[in-house]
Design goal:
Length: 300
C-alpha cells in the first residue's frame, strides 16, 4: 500500500485532543471512515488501534483491522476487479473482516454472535457493525469490562435520507457506549457530534420553530422565482419565434429591422433577468436544504 509523508498530518494531529471518558483506557480503538476528517485519526500513536472501512485513503498510513461488509457480487466488473485486487492487498498484512468472505485470507465477521447480543434493528451502516464489535470486545458479555475508549474519524453521516437512517442506528451504539462507561470521542465538525432534541421538547424548541419559519420563507421565495422564471422563459421563447418570423416574413409596412433590434434588446434583458433569477433560485434552494438538514438533525 502506497504511503505518503505524514509531516502535515502530524502538525494537524498535534492540534487535536483525543478526550475520552476520563477512565483508564486499556484499549483505544479509532474507527476511521472515508470522509475528509479521517485524516485526523491518531495514526502515529501506537496506543490506538486503527479500524478502517471501504476504500483506503492515502493518509491511512497504518491499520490494525479493515472492514468490507458489502457483498462484492453484482457490481460493475471493471470496478469490482480493481476493488478485489485492493482488498487482496489489504488482507495480506491487515485482518480484513467481511460479512461475505470472498477474499483470500479474509476474516468472517462474527455475525451470529453480534446479532445474538445486539439484534439487527440498529445495524444501519458499516459503522454500526464496527461499533458493535468494538463494544463487544471492550465489554465482553461473559467477562468483566476491560476498559477502553473509542474515537470516530472520517464519519459525518450528513446530508440525505440515507445518512438520516444511518445516524439513528449509530446513535444507538453511542448511547450503549455511554451506558457501559466507554468514552467515545467525536470531532466537533462531525455530524455525530451533537445529540437531537428529544420528543416532545422539540415541539417547543425556539431554534426548531425559527427553522420552520425560515423554511416557509425559503419555499415562498422558491415558488415566486419559479413562477417568474416561467413567465420570463416563455417571453424569451415567444420573442425568438417572432424575430424569426419577422426575418422571414416581415410585412412591407413595418420597419422590420428596427422591430427586430427592439425585440432582440428585450430578449437580451429577459435572458439576463433569467440568469439572475437562476442564481437566486440556487441560493434559496441551498438555504432550504441546509435548514431542512439542520431540522432533521436536531429532531429525534
Amino acid at each position: 500500500m502506497k504511503k505518503r509523508s505524514t509531516v502535515g498530518m502530524r502538525r494537524k494531529a498535534d492540534r487535536m485532543t483525543y478526550a475520552g471518558s476520563g477512565a483508564v483506557a486499556d484499549r483505544k480503538i479509532a474507527l476511521v471512515g472515508t470522509a475528509p476528517s479521517g485524516e485526523y485519526a491518531p495514526y502515529e500513536d501506537p496506543s490506538w488501534e486503527i479500524w478502517g472501512v471501504s476504500a483506503r485513503a492515502e493518509y491511512v498510513t497504518r491499520a490494525d483491522r479493515w472492514f468490507e461488509l458489502h457483498r462484492l457480487s453484482g457490481e460493475p466488473n471493471e470496478w469490482m476487479a480493481r476493488w478485489r485486487d485492493e482488498l487482496t492487498g489489504i488482507a495480506k498484512d491487515t485482518p480484513l473482516f467481511m460479512l461475505y468472505p470472498s477474499i483470500e485470507g479474509a476474516v468472517a465477521y462474527p455475525f451470529d454472535h453480534i446479532t445474538a447480543r445486539f439484534g439487527t434493528y440498529f445495524m444501519t451502516s458499516s459503522f454500526a457493525w464496527m461499533m458493535a464489535l468494538a463494544l463487544d470486545e471492550l465489554c465482553p458479555i461473559d467477562a468483566p469490562p476491560i476498559g477502553g475508549e473509542i474515537a470516530i474519524f472520517g464519519v459525518d453521516m450528513e446530508y440525505d435520507s440515507e445518512y438520516e437512517q444511518q445516524r439513528a442506528g449509530f446513535r444507538h451504539f453511542l448511547d450503549l457506549a455511554k451506558a457501559w462507561g466507554v468514552g467515545v470521542t467525536r470531532l466537533a465538525s462531525s455530524g455525530l457530534a451533537y445529540e437531537p432534541i428529544p420528543y416532545p421538547m422539540c415541539q417547543d424548541d425556539p431554534l426548531l420553530n425559527k427553522l420552520d419559519k425560515k423554511q416557509v420563507e425559503a419555499r415562498g421565495q422558491l415558488d415566486t422565482i419559479e413562477a417568474t422564471l416561467a413567465v420570463a422563459e416563455r417571453g424569451i421563447a415567444e420573442n425568438v419565434a417572432v424575430i424569426a418570423a419577422l426575418r422571414e416574413y416581415g410585412p412591407p409596412n413595418l420597419d422590420t429591422g428596427r422591430e427586430i433590434k427592439r425585440m432582440e434588446k428585450e430578449t437580451a434583458k429577459l435572458r439576463e433577468s433569467v440568469g439572475d433569477m437562476q442564481k437566486n433560485f440556487i441560493r434559496w434552494e441551498t438555504a432550504e436544504a441546509e435548514q431542512q438538514w439542520l431540522r432533521d438533525y436536531l429532531t429525534p
